[in-house]
Design goal:
Layout: E1 8-9, E2 14-15, E3 26-31, E4 37-41, E5 46-50, E6 53-56, E7 68-73, E8 79-83, E9 86-90, E10 95-98, E11 113-114, E12 120-122, E13 129-133, E14 136-140, E15 150-155, E16 159-164, E17 169-173, E18 180-184, E19 195-200, E20 206-210, E21 215-219, E22 222-226, E23 237-242, E24 248-252, E25 255-260, E26 263-267, E27 278-283, E28 289-293, E29 296-301, E30 304-307, E31 319-324, E32 329-334, E33 338-342, H1 343-348, E34 356-359, E35 377-379, E36 385-389, E37 392-396, H2 398-401, E38 409-417, E39 420-422, E40 428-430, E41 436-444, E42 453-459, E43 473-477, E44 483-491, E45 501-508, H3 516-584, H4 590-616, H5 626-631, H6 633-636, E46 648-654, H7 662-682, E47 687-694, E48 698-705, H8 712-717, H9 724-735, E49 738-744, E50 748-756, H10 757-760, H11 769-789, E51 794-798
Parallel strand pairs: 40-45, 46-47
Antiparallel strand pairs: 1-2, 3-4, 4-5, 5-6, 7-8, 8-9, 10-37, 11-12, 12-13, 13-14, 15-16, 16-17, 17-18, 19-20, 20-21, 21-22, 23-24, 24-25, 25-26, 27-28, 28-29, 29-30, 31-32, 32-33, 33-34, 35-36, 36-37, 38-39, 38-41, 41-43, 42-44, 44-45, 46-51, 47-48, 48-50, 49-50
Length: 802
């Protein structure tokens, strides 16, 4: 670029300059992705240079072009133009639109047709028929077309068929110039001169659907008309289509109808149509019949007619036109949208994010409202899609849309807590107690920034990504204190989430009552309160049990005193009187023998009464250790057991002795004493042994002998008039202990009493975590002692005579 034009050096020489490139001052140059050379000049504005020559951007403008001083193509292929007037952007949009500004006599709202040569045919709303090709356009003025409105266009191999508002059906031959025309009207057999839809079948015959007269079939120069009387659901025919199986389909205002092998069949809402008003029809390469109605889209396959399911709102709008492109996508024009959708996802009813794209003004369209005309959306022989809309005729090449735009650049711009901004850089710490934390972010896309969508994820709080949103802020309330990471991603205008994400870590600081030391202190205070309440309750229960024990002991003492002072004293006085009388009688007298027997009975009753009194009173032997008290049982009752002196009797103590609970000490002694008395009196044993086992978890008292055992029935239910076993069981149950009796005629009898440690031992707490720890330590200590000494600490107390 020079002050006098542009020079092109090809390695060995300079090429001659084209006339438009001479005598201009070149201030900036840029080469775009398509190989175009852009030149900014001082007097001619912006020039584009390619194989087709040189063109000026402002050639059609009436104002003098500004001097272009800077050019830049960004990552999204936008060309930015700098001049004295500011900055402008030149963007290669998806659609090219033709209307009045391009010299066409129409703003759209008409049917379109593209012939095999690429010539576009379209009728203006005001009437007539026009064509456009390679930037040139012209008008057809044959058979009064310039004064009539064309409703529909169909054609095949050098001919067009035109459905007219008032002029009937016109055949236009365009194979050779000059063009020629021939018109058919009602006088020729046409059902009606107002023809809304035209279709040329594969056999060359033509179908003409009228506004209110049914459909006429032109074959071999003759018309055949079909109406409601012959099978059509309505005489207003909107669209006509021939299926791949030669079935003819007709879209009417009363439903969908087909003609196959001379038979008519109609389909309505009851057969699956969203609406009975059918506007357009299309069969794709797979044989699927697509049906556009006043209330949405449907399709027909081998299983019947199905309404297309999905959440996009355009699926429920009037479908005014559609076409399938070479890539398999379905293009639709609705009452308010222009959409490209994935055909397979539409058929499957799983149309999701990224499966469809809505196009608008930013894509080169001048309007997004479809028109109700037959075939307002068509595909040309080159694969392009033409759409007639309310603001012009637009064309798009689907192949160019396969090149995705670069990903959007996303950045977190700020964090604020209750309106107070926090620094984004470095370690972000937000004071505790903040109610509203707001994140602001942006996604850079200079092509269509309004189409950028965002999704965000707060690690440590959200379960996953949020739904896509156009909002550039995210708000969180009442976040608990901890570490978080806020992540945000952006989609480009094509709806692809193919870019990276931005993230920022931050921490919400705790308030003093949310800190770990405060919670630990609160937990400690709560634990101490619970322990204190527990100990207070246990002391209350202990005092209550002591009171009941003292009351029971006092009552037993009173009963013992009454028995001793009344019954026993009375028996002793009576026995003394009888004894005196017996002494005065001769030895051989019959009365003396009777009195002697009476004295024996009275002596036996007195002894038994003393035993009862002894059982009621708290015996003095309980001031001794329980093993010492039990060792005195034999001496206490040796007069009742003739062979007591011949029995091998011993007491074995295992474990570390501990102080017994005074509330249970008497009951423990009574149970052990009863077991020993039974062994001495009834077992006829040669050996009796008592084992006292002290452990951290329990106290165990075992009385075993090698005698004759106990009858199983007696062991189960006791003996009539004897209450020893049942009394032992009752005492054990009352104190919360477990009593087990094992007996056999071959090995003798064993009575085992097991008392939990927290009941048996004085000052022992109820089981808990600390008790569990204490048990573990005690077991390890015992195991260590046993390993070192080879035996447990055991003390045996034997009767002196044994």
């Amino acid at each position: 670029g020079t002050d006098s034009g542009i020079a092109h050096w090809i390695g060995s020489r300079l090429l001659p300059q084209a006339q438009p490139l001479r005598n201009v001052q070149v201030l900036a140059m840029e080469r775009d992705r398509d190989g175009n050379i852009w030149a900014g000049t001082d007097s001619r504005g912006l020039l584009r240079i390619n194989e087709r020559g040189v063109s000026a951007l402002d050639a059609a403008s009436e104002r003098a072009p500004d001097a272009v001083t800077a050019l830049f193509e960004d990552r999204e292929d936008n060309l930015w133009i700098g001049s004295a007037s500011g900055i402008e952007r030149l963007r290669d949009s998806a659609f090219v639109t033709y209307s009045l500004p391009e010299g066409l006599p129409t703003d759209g709202s008409n049917p379109v047709y593209v012939d095999e040569t690429g010539r576009l045919w379209f009728p203006p709303v005001a009437g007539g028929l026009w064509w456009m090709k390679d930037g040139r356009h012209g008008q057809i003025s044959l058979d009064g077309l310039q004064n009539d409105i064309v409703y529909s266009i169909a054609g095949h191999k050098g001919e067009l068929w035109l459905g007219r508002q008032r002029g009937g059906l016109t055949r236009l031959t365009i194979a050779n110039e000059p063009f020629s025309a021939h018109t058919y009207t009602k006088a020729d057999g046409l059902a009606q001169d107002s023809v809304f839809s035209v279709y040329q079948a594969r056999d060359g015959s033509v179908w003409a659907g009228t506004l209110s007269g049914g459909v006429s079939h032109l074959s071999e120069g003759r018309f055949t008309t079909y109406t409601r009387a012959t099978g059509l659901p309505s005489n207003a025919v909107e669209a006509i289509l021939e299926g791949s199986d030669q079935t003819m389909w007709f879209a009417t205002s009363g439903g969908l109808s087909r003609l196959s092998k001379g038979q008519w069949q109609s389909f309505t809402v009851a057969d699956g149509l969203p609406s009975a008003s059918v506007y357009c029809l299309l069969e794709d390469s797979a044989g699927i019949l697509w049906i556009g109605t006043a209330r949405g889209l449907a399709f027909r396959n081998s299983s019947g007619i199905h309404e297309v399911a999905g959440s996009p709102e355009w699926l429920r709008e009037p479908i005014l036109g559609f076409e399938v492109d070479g890539l398999g996508s379905l293009w639709l024009a609705t009452s308010t949208h222009v959409v490209r959708a994935n055909r397979e996802k539409l058929l499957g009813g799983v149309l999701g994010e990224g499966d469809w794209r809505d196009y608008g003004i930013a894509d080169g369209l001048r309007g997004t409202e479809g028109v109700r005309r037959n075939r307002s959306v068509v595909a040309d022989p080159f694969g392009r899609i033409w759409l007639s809309l309310d603001r012009g005729i637009s064309v798009v090449d689907p192949v160019r849309l396969t090149r995705n735009m670069p990903p959007a650049i996303v950045q977190i711009q700020g964090i604020s807590a209750d309106g107070v901004a926090a620094p984004v850089a470095g370690s972000v710490r937000i004071p505790g107690g903040r109610q509203r934390i707001r994140f602001s972010y942006a996604g850079l896309s200079l092509s269509v920034p309004e189409r950028v969508r965002f999704r965000y994820w707060l690690d440590g709080f959200d379960p996953g990504w949020s739904e896509p949103t156009a909002s550039r802020e995210a708000l969180y309330t009442n976040l608990p204190p901890r570490r978080y990471r806020f992540r945000v991603a952006a989609s480009n205008p094509d709806g692809l989430w193919n870019g990276g994400e931005a993230s920022i870590p931050f921490e919400v600081e705790p308030l003093f009552w949310q800190s770990w030391w405060f919670r630990a202190a609160a937990l400690l205070v709560s634990a101490c309160t619970i322990i204190g309440a527990y100990r207070f309750r246990m002391r209350q229960l202990t005092d209550r049990l002591n009171l009941r024990f003292e009351e029971r002991l006092a009552e037993r003492t009173r009963i013992a005193q009454v028995l001793h002072d009344t019954l026993l004293q009375g028996f002793l006085s009576a026995s003394m009187q009888v004894h005196i009388v017996a002494d005065t009688l001769p030895e051989d007298s019959r009365e003396k023998s009777i009195l002697t027997r009476a004295l024996q009975v009275m002596r036996q009753v007195t002894d038994e009464g003393r035993n009862v009194v002894r059982g009621l009173r708290s015996t003095a032997s309980l001031t001794l250790d329980i093993e010492q008290a039990l060792s005195m049982v034999r001496d206490e009752h040796i007069t009742h057991v003739n062979t007591a002196g011949e029995i091998d009797f011993r007491i074995v103590v295992a474990g570390q002795k501990r102080q017994l609970n005074p509330l249970l000490r008497d009951d423990l002694y009574r149970i052990g004493r009863e077991a020993l008395l039974n062994a001495f009196r009834h077992s006829r044993a040669r050996k009796i042994e008592v084992e006292l086992n002290y452990s951290a978890s329990q106290l165990r008292i075992i009385v075993r002998d090698d005698g004759c055992g106990i009858d199983p029935e007696t062991l189960k239910s006791g003996r009539d008039g004897h209450w020893g076993l049942s009394g032992m069981r009752e005492r054990a149950e009352q104190m919360g202990a477990r009593l087990q009796v094992y007996s056999s005629t071959t090995v003798g009898t064993e009575v085992k009493l097991s008392v939990p440690g927290h009941l048996a031992f004085e000052g022992e707490p109820r089981p808990g975590i600390w008790q569990f720890v204490r048990k573990r330590r005690a077991r390890r200590s015992v195991a260590g002692t046993a390993s070192a000494e080879g035996n447990t600490n055991e003390r045996r107390t034997q009767d002196p005579g044994t």
